[in-house]
Amino acid sequence: MKHENAGHTLIELTIVLCLISVLAGMVIVRFPLNSSRQQTIAAARKLGNLIATYRDRAISEQTVYALQINAESGQYAIFKSDERLVPDSAGKPAIISGKLEDPISFGKISHPASPDTVPVTIYFDSRGVLQDLSIEIRHKSGAHIRLIPDQLTSVVRYEEN
Fold first, then answer.
1. Is the CB of residue 120 less than 8 Å from the CB of residue 111?
2. 11 phi and psi, to 5 degrees?
């Protein structure tokens, strides 16, 4: 009786699957991992998380923190402040500082306490109430996101335009 080889061995199937996996991995690597939209969202989320964190800390520690944003240079920093005065950035070290890297930049910052000043200073105090605020993060490609912190809670909304 003659047996015909009707199928493939397990080793042959495993080798073919490994080759397909390697080739698929090479194709995925060639696609851009960071689109302009993803970069803009990441920068907005980073700043939004910073706002929520230090707003909560101000309430729990019964102190005042100030977020300074220099829209022209793309820099931002958090300072601990004794009261609601513009913190002296030369005299006090920043707790956290950062910079939006090119191609990301700040767009329009709407804040009634300091509408046209550079840098814009936003205070987080022990009461937890925040004035009406929106911060725009832009990408050179045109993608932009507005951060809108809630006035009474630490929730930050993100609006894509």
1. yes
2. -65, -45
26 falls within a domain: no
Is the C-alpha dihedral spanning 39, 42, 78, 156 positive or negative?
A: positive
The answer to whether 120 touches 69, Cβ cutoff 8 Å, is yes
Separation CA 129–CA 125 (nearest Å): 7
Residue 146, strand partner residues: 136, 159
| Each residue's pLDDT tens digit, 30-77 | 655 568 888 899 999 999 999 999 999 999 999 889 889 998 999 999
Dihedral sign for Cα atoms in the order 124, 128, 133, 134: positive
Q: Report, as an integer, the average pLDDT of 120-133.
A: 85
Total count of residues recorded for the chain: 161
Q: What is the number of structural domains in the chain? A: 1
d(C-alpha 116, C-alpha 120), whole Å:
8
